[in-house]
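FAQ: What does the model actually see?

It sees only this:
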Amino acid sequence: GDEDKVRKLDEAVTRAMGFSSAVPVSGQTYSRKIDSQIMAALSGIAQSAHKFSNDMRLLQHLREIQEPFGSEQIGSSAMAYKRNPMKSERIASLSRFVITLYTNAGFTAASQWFERTLDDSAGKRIVVPEAFLATDAVLQLYLNVASGLDVNLDVIEQHVREQIGDIASENLLMKAVKAGGNRQELHEVIRRHKMESKDGDLLDRLKNDEAFKAVRGAMSRLGEPRQYVGRSPAQVREFLDQEVEPRLAPRRKALGLKSEVKV
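And it is asked to produce this:
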């Protein structure tokens, strides 16, 4: 036969099918490792989405950030006052499903005999389509939640104020030691006050304790939350400018997509 014509036929069929390249060496089928790699990508999407949904559910429990909630939406069929993170719960559920499907593709790729065995196709016809459909649903939910977040700044500030005494106590301890205090004794004073404190009053209790008399003048400054964020604001801006924006730039047409989710 004419090998040159065979190669040209292969290239022509590849182009006609809409592909830029073909599997370089294959027999009846392509390597099932390709399926495994595709499923790994879908599993990676699901892992990230699941992590996002877990964080959202925790933040919603604290009422700091809540997922979008329709005016007619029912948060709980049993308790009318509840606002359950139903969309985030669905993301988690479907994401776990996609993650488990990856193992099927991995086992299939690993267990093939030589070129292939016939135990691969029946499972593949179920697993691969379901993985894509479930991932599509995950991304629809993800888009809907992420584009409509309800950020409760007042609640966040309240929680920070409640915890600022605990955060500041370490700096207070260091300042008191520098002023001549005994670290072990001061540590015990803070521990004892913390065990007895409530409603974020730790700094006030320490201010009135004679053990911290030498640093009382610094107490009010230690209660300012901004001094504990470090480089976080700059890191966020740098991440958006250097990592996120370059990835968004070639995909501008896709930005602004809407996802309608009924719950």
